[in-house]
Amino acid sequence: DKATLKKALWADMFTGRLRSEIPPAVEALCDGVIASGTQLDELDLSDNAFGPDGIMAVTRLLTSPACYKLHTLKLHNNGLGIGGGKILAKALGESIDIATKEGREFPIHTIILGRNRLESEGAMALAPVFARMVHLESITMFQNFVSGTGVEALANAFGNLNDMKVIDLNDNTFKEQGGIAMAKVLPLLPFLHTVNFDDCLLQSEGFHHLAAAFEQGCDSLERLSLAHNDAEAEAGLAVARALRNKKSLAYINLDGNLFGMAVIHQIQLLLAGVGGGKALKEFEDDELITDDDDGRSDQEEEDNQGGVTYVPALSSLTSASASELFSATDNEVLQLGHRPRLLQAALNDFDGEMDTLVDLFSKTCNIYKQHHDEEEEQSAASHIAESLIASVNDKAQFSLYQFWPELMIELGLLKAEDKKRKPCADLAGGLSILIRLAENKALTREQANFISAFIEKPHKELSASLSSLRTRLLALTYNYR
After folding, report:
1. What is the DSSP code (8-state) at residue 55?
2. How many CA atoms lie within 13 A of 392 on its CB side?
3. What does the alpha-carbon distance between residue 138 and residue 151 come to, in Å, rounded to a whole number?
4. Does pTM surpass 0.70?
């Protein structure tokens, strides 16, 4: 019914399909909507790895009357790349031209383009189009490999958008150039209430520029996240001083920087009155907090260096390459579970064989089992697994029917025909990890169905001692259907 069809929620429909199969199917869906005469409010094609060809199939819909009232566009995790970003920019630009010619306002107010590898070139193609979207309120473009020039182009675009309320660019690479550009723009946005610049390599220089921006304005800010940016003590204090009188702030995250315990205490004092004393997130991952800060003596440190409780730092936890990650010990891998930015950088750097990723997942399962009574360490192991699965989903060369069967073999739930791979992962740890992934909605529907197909039937490895884990995982995977 064209009168009631307002949302085209087509997320996660094509996972596991050949890329050549997807564009004709997307085009057919879009043509059906156009032919129906409806006018959509929301279009969601997230988590379909269709790349530039897929977005090309959507362009006719975007420029048609079916999208004249579209206010929300979600294209998260579509593998658009630079080419797809340029195609999308052209289509949106044409839509704005049509609206202008017809005397209509362009209605889109929310755009989600996370995890698309747009890079700076793609961001620079989209930026001038964003600048023309007079009602744009929320932009999400995290994890797109956008560097300083691209961030600067986006900032210049945002400066034209008085209605902007939400900017989420986490896990891109600002450095000083991006920090300066954003700092100039943020005070100009009177309704801005949410900023997420986590993992953006702002460093101390970027923090100082943002602190100046917060001093000038940004009085509507409610949520600010600047975690894992390699900012040092004075920069952190500058930001804290600039925020201490912001009456609207309800959430501040400055964790994972280079402050040290003494400066963290100063920041906590400066921000103690913000948000009723509850705004500042706890510091758990500051990279300068040492064992001594936790009250351990030098003698304890020396004693533990010869024992099993000592955890060596992987590359001093300031960088991690793919080769380091996949050759690391269990304890070193676990440390990266507490360092999301370094973990993601190592996974992004990986261009090797699929077996290596399966081996890392196996190692994660074993880590989870080893720390069966330590919630913090289990959460870190789960984060590694979730990041790993996301990385597998991003890599076009690893399809559903390549990685997951190998993982089932690793868990002992599938017999290897060539007998090259033998089960090495702890099954209890593996089931527990999969439960965590399902609970966090980190699996696609096809992945959940694949898992349930292997565990819903009787299997000698799924003994009575694992029945509760099996039952829990089945229930969660069935919820995906």
Report:
1. H
2. 30
3. 16
4. no
